[in-house]
Amino acid sequence: INLLVYDVQSVVVEITGSGYALTDVGLNDVVLESGDLNGDTNINASDASELLVNAALLGAGENANLYDVQMTAADVNSDGIVDASDAAVILQYAAAIGAGQSDVKIEDFI
Predict the structure, then answer these.
(1) Each residue of 81-100: pLDDT tens digit?
(2) Is 94 within 8 Å of 106 (Cβ atoms)?
(3) Which of 17, 37, 48, 95 gives 90 a disulfide partner, CB atoms 3.0 to 4.6 angstroms apart?
(4) 43, burial (CB in 10 Å: exposed 0-12, middle 13-18, buried 19+)
């Protein structure tokens, strides 16, 4: 039996009849939708939370704990800076979706 499981952390778990192996598949080959930092196809408060944690790290002069593709998805307003403004856009979009406005796009809140 061979089973491949992919996740947003760019690791493949391959389970075979004799054990398992972890392989880095290069997350930067994946395309994430703007605002979807965790790659679950739902743009919501979880993405905003992840963004805010990493924006705080960047603001403190630390490195973000995000892959390049996640940093691109995090810069929702495309100003070249990952900050609370991007999280605010995500939260406004998530609130609209939660209120039943299924026809909105995240770009509507920039």
Answers:
(1) 999 999 999 999 999 999 99
(2) no
(3) 48
(4) buried
